[in-house]
Amino acid sequence: MKKLLKVALVAICILSTGSFARAQVKIGYIAVDQVLQLMPETKTIRTQIDAYSKQFQDQIDRLKKESDDKIAAYQKGQATMTDAARIAAQGDINDVQRRTEEYRNTAEQSVQAKVQELIKPVNDKIRAAITAVAKEKGYTYVLNTSSPDGAEILVVMPETDDLMNAVKAKLGLTGGAPAAAAK
User: Fold this and answer.
1) pTM greater than the 0.85 cutoff
2) Could you tell me if 173 and 43 are in contact, meaning their C-beta atoms sit under 8 angstroms apart?
């Protein structure tokens, strides 16, 4: 997002300083997330990530069950426990809950790292196709209209500068959501 903003600001500066007359600037746009969803590799990556994260979820479920069992045993025997036994049981419960939270955080980081590892070659392939299309069509800048929160990044965008169909053709992709015609 910051990169996109920087590119847009640079493009605006170039246009407003008068250097536009010396060097023609052509700006295109594409929704990279839509291209990513159309890539056949994405389904395989999703399957791999689901299997990978399930391993972590199974361990988290075991730790949660261990915690629930300790809590139930503590509540059942609390009235008859000595102070030392009560403190020890509370310590055990806190320890399992702490381990569960630490494991959950580690698991999330591992899954995110795995996603980045698996998606990088696909993103590189998409970037190469976008770069090739931009070069073929004479675009100086190509903006990504995909936004994580779904907000529109560009408000005014001529359909002739949408590179979606050209990039899909370059990648050999068909189908998916209709996009505006490429120039």
Assistant:
1) no
2) no
